[in-house]
Amino acid sequence: MSHQCQTLVIHCIDFRLGKTIKKYLEGQNLLGDCDIVSVAGAAKNIASPENDSEREFLMKQIDISKKLHNINEVILINHSDCGAYGGSSAFNSNTEEKERHFQDMERATNIIREKYHDLKIKKMLADIDDSGDVTFVDG
């Protein structure tokens, strides 16, 4: 039995992202055509894990998705006010917080590409405003 999908999505477990991610996936015709990994901190676990097992876990998920479902793309979705980063209060400004997320996603991209040269990687930041509205910023 052969079953394939084009994309693996790695995003944070934060419940505030659920509806927005679903809407995004539907809009990109990916809902039902992607593997999804949800883990606290998302790309942080590849870029700057607290221990090696966090990176190993996510790299194994990419490996499995590639081997079993022949993915050709990974979408990394981090978000503002992420508890794995200490929340927004851990940063001096919104700009500093966004820069850190994009730096981690870029570092994660480089680590993934070391092993999988052929994968396309898309980086997105889900920006959660004070009212709880979520908008995506491409990286």
Notes on the protein architecture:
The longest helix has 22 residues, at 94-115. The chain has one domain: Carbonic anhydrase (Beta-carbonic Anhydrase, Chain A). The model has no long low-confidence stretch (mean pLDDT 95). It has four helices and five strands. 39% of the residues lie in helices and 22% in strands. It is of the alpha/beta class. The chain has a five-stranded mixed beta sheet, covered by helices on one side.
List keywords for this structure.
Beta-carbonic Anhydrase, Chain A; 139 residues; 4 helices; alpha/beta
SSE map:
Blueprint: E1 7-11, H1 18-27, E2 34-38, H2 44-47, H3 52-69, E3 73-79, H4 94-115, E4 120-128, E5 134-138
Parallel strand pairs: 1-2, 1-3, 3-4
Antiparallel strand pairs: 4-5
The share of residues in helices is 25-40%
Give the CATH topology.
Beta-carbonic Anhydrase, Chain A
CATH architecture: 3-Layer(aba) Sandwich
The biggest beta sheet is recorded as: 5 strands, mixed
Spatial gap, N to C terminus: 36 Å
Spatial order of the strands forming the largest sheet: 2-1-3-4-5
Q: What overall geometry do the principal axes of the alpha carbons give?
A: globular
Query: How many alpha or pi helices?
Result: 4
Order of helices and strands: EHEHHEHEE
Mean pLDDT: 95
Pairing-aware structural class of the strands and helices?
A: alpha/beta
Number of domains: 1
Broad CATH class: Alpha Beta
